[in-house]
Amino acid sequence: MASITEYAEQTLHTFLQRPFSEVDSLVLSQLSYIHLDAVFTHAANPEIRDFLRAEAFEGLFRGVRDEAGNRRLLTALAASPRFRNMRAGSFSEKTSRQREEQFAAVTFYPDDRTACIVFRGTDSTLVGWKEDFNMAFMPRVPAQADAAAYVNQIGAAFPGRLLLCGHSKGGNLAIYAAAMCAPEIQARIDAVYAHDSPGFSRAVLESAGYRRIQPRIRKTIPQSSLIGMLLESHDQYTVVESRQSGIMQHDPFSWVIEDGAFRTLEKITAGAEFMNDTLDDWITGMSIAERERFVDALYDILSAGGITSIFDFGGNLPQRLSTMRSAAAGLDPKTREFLFQIVTRLAGYAVKNLAKFPKPSGLIQP
Q: Which domains are present in the chain?
């Protein structure tokens, strides 16, 4: 059994010898989380081995979750005969608090006839997480619009076959872009790889573009998936074994690979079913206006605590929590009562769904 890093270290076949796979798409999806702007400042179309340039290296991992794991992965890719000569290009990145957008995309070329478009998932910024939550009430978030435009741009410039992939929000962007890009470009998309990515509004799922691309979507989730089961989805999925527990299974480094493919399981855990049923009931039980009001109020409380990154929760946490409590107490009475009612509803749905499981102890499992 191996991780994506060990897969990169041990796989010696080139893409001519072994075709592009779901595992390769997860490897590139994880690679997209590092700060690629540090690389593209020095080269327009670098190969992956060029990512290790000394002048760019330290900037690649600044503020990236699991710096050590990402360093090891990049080192393995730069040495690998499968990945080291893979060319990259068209890096695009946007982060805007005003637009509540966090977007990044890059295109890799496994061979001369294939372009693999990779969308970065949610990074450590609070605005990135806010955009994720906005998906609960907005028909389209800014990153989705930019993702579709990016695919149209790459598709117009590159005449070969296209692959799209991403992890977490990146997988959502990959599916959205594949569904909403120009039909003549969509026709050249061979597959869309979405790893533990949230779903969509019903309007997206019922669109003609989504129906055309749906048979080519390859969705994977870990056995205790939470993120990948949020919102609505018509996609079939493959359950991948993870070495972690609970929400930590969202980490691609924890997914198990065996003989060059994901090690799969028959279904998600009972605990994941319980959480997903409860959250789905909770979200669908709110009106669109209630979802927006709840997300905005929560974001305001976090912002008042000076939180701009999820890493901020680890620094001076008592003071930040105190500030956030004060911000919550300073909300107008109607908003405080609204938040209390919404959280109370969540508890109610949890109690209701608990009755579906005859052995509650079975809900606590990896």
A: 4-268 (3.40.50.1820), 275-363 (no CATH)
